[in-house]
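User: Could you walk me through two proteins back to back? I'd like the raw sequence and the structure tokens for each, with a short line separating them so I can tell where one ends and the next begins.

Assistant: Of course. Protein one, sequence then structure:
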Amino acid sequence: ILTDDIKYMHAFESCYFNAFMAGLYHDWAARAVRSAGRHMWTNQAGMKYQHCCLNNMARAILRYNELAVVQNEKFVTVNLFDEFFAKLAYDGGECDLSVSGGFFENKPVEISAKFTGNSKKLRVRIPHWCENFSSSADGKIVGGYFETDAVGDIDFSVSFDMKPKICEFVGTPCDGEWHLFRWASDSAKVCT
């Protein structure tokens, strides 16, 4: 993601919403996806009193917050679109950014950026699943991002053509040593 290659942000978003969030139980205390809800901490990682998924859940949530909006020398980039407010400080300036609206309901997302000191352009990631993207601001699409023409304060909306697709992951339960069960990239069962 630090390389500014959009494919990594696309992969993060897909993993976060499809695997990570789908794998949390309602109490946020256990992972559900792996091993059909059975969890193993001693056999998996040799941990006797704690297991890694609880630690990794907090890391994933923190990473999501860190990646929602980022900035570099030229741009403040909005990567994720659920509602949030961020205050970014950088050499010579600051940006107060808010994202609101109905992203998860396939409604327009409102983006507002207010700069003090040195201003930057705003850039919005266009998700890889988006077939039609529109913006009320003037700008251009470059490398999967929408770059606003304006530098500095801006209020605008963006719309995504979100057509959710349900993709069933078909698998066969692994009998016996289920904690050793892994999936290969071609969806073939691999037990080690």
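----
Protein two, same layout:
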Amino acid sequence: VVCCEKILEKDYKHEGILWKWFVAQLNSGILIWEDAVGLLQSLPELDKNQTANFLLYVLYFCKFIETNHRTYAVESSKCMSVCRTLAKNNSKSTSSKLFYAANNSLQLVENRNDMFIFDGTINREIKSTQSGYVALDIHPGFEAFFVPAHTELKKEQSFNCKVKFFLGFSYDGLRAFDVIKSSHKEPATLLR
């Protein structure tokens, strides 16, 4: 109860009751995927609800990782697209609010420990030190944005390069963090 009270009192960047409900469920360990998806899908005017579409794209993505069932990948992509459209005027849309953890669960931004390491391929030529994309090897239809300036990857020299990274979720789509070439064993923050 104290955990839930602290979550409800915390600002969470003015996310509202839906986000606070989700965080409370996540932190208390009682988040049941089917119940959460059912509740979110039942909301009125779902196509206009940025937070609900964000949570649905994250939940479907995690279920896809867990099951490798393509239906979940399709649903995640649909919700991500709606969320991205709704987030166009949101200045905070690119910051990651959740991360995928090593125990096949979600972790909040405040805790990036024990992250799951994803494999991917740079699927577009890096044209700027501020913008790059990596396709996830588990499903090349999923791309994660990253900032090449924070990596060892070079402009116009890294196409088709195999990489490892941590994965975050933002309203604007997937985000790759601590991207390194696959010749390394682990992302930089794990090499402490």
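The first helix runs from residue 2 to 9.

Let me know if you want the two compared in more detail.
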